[in-house]
Amino acid sequence: MDSTEDIVRLLDSMVEAGASRIKVETSKELDSGEVKKTYHHGRCDVGSPFATGKLFDLEEE
Hints:
The chain is mainly alpha-helical. The protein contains 2 helices and no strands.
């Protein structure tokens, strides 16, 4: 994505496709122009310890 117009077009297309929530993050791990989508169901935070099941303070038996 080289311009603001490209980003606006991408976001507009996502909204038109039915996305109700969009969180944009940049990453040096992805190639230029590459897009990664994460889906979730319900009210949990995407990637949170509760959503991933990896609680940092959970005592293992």
